[in-house]
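Sample pair:
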Amino acid sequence: MRHLMSPLDFSVEELDRLLDLANDIEANPKKYAHACDGKKIATLFYEPSTRTRLSFEAAMLNLGGSVLGFSSADSSSAAKGETVADTIRIISSYADICAMRHPKEGAPLVASMYSSIPVINAGDGGHQHPTQTLTDLLTIRTLKGRLDNITIGLCGDLKFGRTVHSLISALVRYPNVNFILISPEELRIPDYIRENVLRKNHQNFKEVVRLEDALPELDLLYMTRVQKERFFNEEDYVRMKDFYILDKAKLELAGPDMLILHPLPRVNEISAEVDDDPRAVYFRQAQYGVYVRMALILTLLEVEVC
């Protein structure tokens, strides 16, 4: 039995097979429509989510399985003081696989230690978001045709942005990936990512403040929102929330083949006028999230479809 806590839990070869499976699911959905008949996924979401929770549920339903779970801690026994360890022990009796989102770093890892079913980390605080990373990798590989030899700009909240931390950790395993880290001083990448991931792997990276300075160099721009829920006070959030706004005027500085990704939800860091630009692929990215989660469920449940 395997769990997924980090994108590094899969080797590069295993990731390639997972992404190949996701592409096949996209091309041949009917082939997989009954792959998980009789199987159940529990979605245990201790903090709000739209895309991640619903895409897990859509993934299992598309595979012929069923769904149970909760969408907030207030609607679970956590409100009564039940521990994650006790919750997963119970859920293991009800479901075949579990996706957990939790505001505390490491909570899904704790769950995996007490679980008798596969546990998927669906986001833990500001730490990791591996299934978003799988979605990002599928989007990049499908639309760019490669995961190597790229220059990617990561813009916005790089301090608390778990999607950014996971994506960097995954991409450093591919050759000739250059990172441009675009953030205000207060939201720079954490030291452990800078030192233990980027420098330790001898990655080419630079840190800049101005988005305009980076745009001409990029193959990919990964925008993120400033996350209100991670700030300790309202004043700091209000000061930082509009630091970056991507609009048509700024996009004139970018190349014609640059892709714009965003894990969503978007607040106002990407102007709505950008949505019609062919380089904007964030809504397609959300659709790829269903395919990759379908592939992940099949992989962790060891279901093979001929």
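The chain is about 35% helix and 15% strand.
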